[in-house]
Amino acid sequence: xxxxxxxxxxxxxxxxxxxxxxxxxxxxxxxxxxxxxxxxxxxxxxxxxxxxxxxxxxxxxxxxxxxxxxxxxxxxxxxxxxxxxxxxxxxxxxxxxxxxxxxxxxxxxxxxxxxxxxxxxxxxxxxxxxxxxxxxxxxxxxxxxxxxxxxxxxxxxxxxxxxxxxxxxxxxxxxxxxxxxxxxxxxxxxxxxxxxxxxxxxxxxxxxxxxxxxxxxxxxxxxxxxxxxxxxxxxxxxxxxxxxxxxxxxxxxxxxxxxxxxxxxxxxxxxxxxxxxxxxxxxxxxxxx
Amino acid sequence: xxxxxxxxxxxxxxxxxxxxxxxxxxxxxxxxxxxxxxxxxxxxxxxxxxxxxxxxxxxxxxxxxxxxxxxxxxxxxxxxxxxxxxxxxxxxxxxxxxxxxxxxxxxxxxxxxxxxxxxxxxxxxxxxxxxxxxxxxxxxxxxxxxxxxxxxxxxxxxxxxxxxxxxxxxxxxxxxxxxxxxxxxxxxxxxxxxxxxxxxxxxxxxxxxxxxxxxxxxxxxxxxxx
Lengths: 289, 226
What we know:
The structure holds 2 protein chains of 2 kinds.
Chain A: H1 6-11, H2 16-28, H3 32-51, H4 67-76, H5 84-101, E1 105-107, H6 117-129, H7 133-153, H8 158-161, H9 167-181, H10 186-200, H11 216-235, H12 244-257, H13 274-284
Helix pairs in contact in A: 2-3, 2-7, 3-7, 4-5, 5-6, 5-11, 6-9, 6-11, 7-9, 9-10, 9-11, 10-11, 10-12
Chain B: H1 3-6, E1 10-12, H2 16-33, E2 40-47, H3 48-56, H4 58-66, H5 79-85, E3 89-94, E4 103-110, E5 116-125, E6 128-134, E7 137-141, E8 147-153, H6 158-168, E9 173-180, E10 186-193, H7 199-206, E11 211-217
Parallel strand pairs in B: 2-3
Antiparallel strand pairs in B: 2-4, 4-5, 5-6, 6-7, 8-10, 8-11, 9-10
């Protein structure tokens, strides 16, 4: 049976990865080996997607492309405000978001629009710490379980819950995975996720011309930064004052109260700006290629 | 949602509903036609598919599915050219298919043999799809499980024909749905099952009077995304 609450993870007596793995096997009628090999394939696909970034590509609207490479070049100059590691995280988030917008292969986590957050926090950290692929695969179980709980108690769809449901969920998954890799226990992991959700609570889904481009790509970088911040706070022993599952319920309530123009309709927020409307108009007349 | 609905699908962007789901709708139409790449395809886009489909590559994704590509195939971006090369003529139009899910496409196919198929499919999010109309009859199936589709005349006994064949082959039925246009008219049975039907079982059904078509869809390997 699927993991139903973060409390269930915090109450688990065994290693939470084993608990999540076992629950996946029951959920899908799969063997342990099936589950692990599928998760390994998924991690390999994330790595392939990262390697496949092409800075020369532009999205269908022309708004997106090349920023990942721009960020890498800037990081290489050694003068970033956040430091080299965070610079790599930002670059990875932008690259994956751009690959998605330019019809390259990516791994939705939890959605295509938020596909950059998890790779951004995982890949540079794996390189820096020299972690094995097997360890990264275990971190994916932790991230997946957090996403699963949010999907059940709230939503992971921008159309239902706004961007907090997509980038917010991705950031919570990333915070949990990083906290796990940093040696945090189940309580620290769940509180890292809760703090990330709280940081992005209320974020609206306002894509220009309804496309997964603006502001989606750059929000992946922001979501990754918040994931790192919350993982570090949790590893320092800081806890969310509001219990993690209650935070998820708050996210659901905020999503339900959000006006429909701010839930993936392309009618509010930056989509409704003069610029947004101009792009929207242009997309109606784009010739077939 | 299971763990791999959260992590995955592995897909070509930009949108799981408008791109990955559209590839799967196209692929479903190809599989239901059952004779490889069609000669002609007329595609009607409705709702959000019509409004934002071009920017999301929905048109190219549907065609990629008709060509047999999966949602993670990077040739999706160039599928319109590949359709030309494969000799498949494609036309697009926009229309308001009333009462349908916002992300819906109707696909009318003509195969090399002259056989035709009309299917309407909706993309529900996260790459999951639903077939909602098949050759003029309302249906409701996803193709996530192995699925047997039997088109028959609406007369007594055909459910029993199919159920007894499945029982003989030791195939368990997960869900069973029946649809018809009017009493005594055209009917369709959609049976989701737990494992594949042996080919001789399908052949046996095809020879029964009043059964006009039998299609078996095995579960797609990528049905949950990877």
